[in-house]
Amino acid sequence: MEQFPAPKKHPQKTNKKRLTNEQVKLLETSFNFNNKLDSTRKSQLAQELGVPARQIAIWYQNKRARWRNQSLETEHKVLQHRLERVSSDKNRLEREVERLKTELAKAKDLLVSSKTMNYASLPSFSSSCDEVGSSSLLGDHGDFYVCFDDHQFDHKSDGHDFFAR
User: Which residues form the Homeobox domain (predicted)?
Assistant: First the structure.
């Protein structure tokens, strides 16, 4: 006949009692003051609360683990918020770059078209460089002065090169 091994006897576990709200508050206060527990403080808390020192040590260990997790979650949220802000700034800057590229292309087109402008299409100006003629080529932006010298075109407005950018 086969014999089964005798069941192993487990040491009897002591029913540890749940901590009361007042006990938890005292432990929280102690933890906030110092999250590391030395043996003297552990014995003192165990005696004050009327619970085994091992239960105090385990409570501290669990509390540190929860505290680290909360710290990581908070840090993650802060980093996530920064990432969203940076991504938003990046998108805004990319749109600004595209807008500026469009403006630059328009300015280049204007410059090219103004350099290739037919001289015959210009309004008549004084042929003497001593006299200044004005036209409304620039509209409200000011006067455009032209001086002809042997078919050379001087494209300067108020002493500044009109086409230079």
Answer: 10-70
